[in-house]
Recover the amino acids of this structure.
C-alpha cells in the first residue's frame, strides 16, 4: 500500500532531487553495454548515489528548520526539552523585546547558525539536531515505522537502521573523496550496479519518509 508523502515544500523539493538521482540511474541503464566511447556508465551510478545522499542531507536541514520555526512561533506548543533549553544571547532577547524581530525569527537564526553548515551524515548528529523538535527516540521510532510498513517481515532496530544509513553515507564518501578507488589502487574502482544504487536510493527515500511520519505523529 503506497504511503502518502508529506505535502510540504521541503518534501516536494526532496522528491525532485531524488527523481534526479533516479534519472541518472536510468541513463546509465540505457547506455549499459553500448560502450559509449570514454564514458564509464558506472560514473552515472556514482553520481546518482552522491545526489541521493545530498538530497537527504538537504531535506534533513530544511525539515529541521521548518519545524523549529513552527514550534517557536506557536505560543501554545509544548516545546521539546532541548528547544526549551536552547540558549539565546541577551542582546537577541532584548531585540525581541523591542519588537525588532520575532522570537521565532531569533530562534531560527541561531539554530541555523549552529546546524546549517553541519552535514547530516552521522546518525548520532542527526538525532542530536532533531531533539530540538521532538523528544522521541528518533532512530528507534524510524525502525518501528519501517517494520510496520514492511508488515513486520523485517526486524529493524535503531542500531540496524543507523548502521545501514551509515553504510550508504560511507560509500558516498568513497565516491566523493576518493573517486571510489579500491584500497591501494590508482585505477581500479569498486564495482557498482544499477541495482546497488536503486537499493541505496530506495533506502534513503524510505528513511526520510519514516522520519517525517514519526515526527508528524
Amino acid at each position: 500500500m503506497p504511503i502518502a508523502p508529506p505535502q510540504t515544500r521541503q518534501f516536494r523539493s526532496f522528491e525532485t532531487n531524488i527523481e534526479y538521482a533516479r534519472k541518472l540511474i536510468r541513463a546509465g541503464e540505457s547506455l549499459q553495454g553500448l560502450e559509449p566511447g570514454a564514458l564509464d556508465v558506472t560514473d552515472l551510478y556514482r553520481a546518482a548515489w552522491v545526489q541521493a545522499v545530498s538530497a537527504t542531507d538537504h531535506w534533513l536541514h530544511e525539515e529541521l528548520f521548518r519545524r523549529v520555526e513552527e514550534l517557536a512561533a506557536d505560543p501554545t506548543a509544548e516545546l521539546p526539552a532541548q528547544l526549551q533549553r536552547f540558549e539565546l544571547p541577551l542582546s537577541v532577547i532584548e531585540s525581541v523585546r523591542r519588537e525588532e524581530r520575532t522570537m521565532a525569527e531569533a530562534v531560527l537564526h541561531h539554530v541555523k547558525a549552529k546546524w546549517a553548515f553541519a552535514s547530516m551524515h552521522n546518525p548520532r548528529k542527526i538525532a542530536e539536531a532533531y531533539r530540538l523538535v521532538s523528544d522521541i527516540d528518533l532512530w528507534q521510532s524510524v525502525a518501528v515505522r519501517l517494520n510496520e510498513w514492511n508488515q513486520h517481515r523485517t526486524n529493524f532496530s535503531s542500531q540496524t537502521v543507523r548502521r545501514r544509513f551509515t553504510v550508504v553515507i560511507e560509500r558516498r564518501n568513497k565516491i566523493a573523496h576518493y573517486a571510489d578507488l579500491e584500497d591501494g589502487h590508482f585505477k581500479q574502482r569498486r564495482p557498482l550496479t544499477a541495482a546497488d544504487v536503486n537499493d541505496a536510493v530506495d533506502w534513503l527515500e524510505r528513511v526520510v519518509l519514516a522520519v517525517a511520519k514519526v515526527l508528524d505523529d
The chain has one domain: 9-216. The mean pLDDT is 93. Residues 42-73 form the longest helix (32 residues).
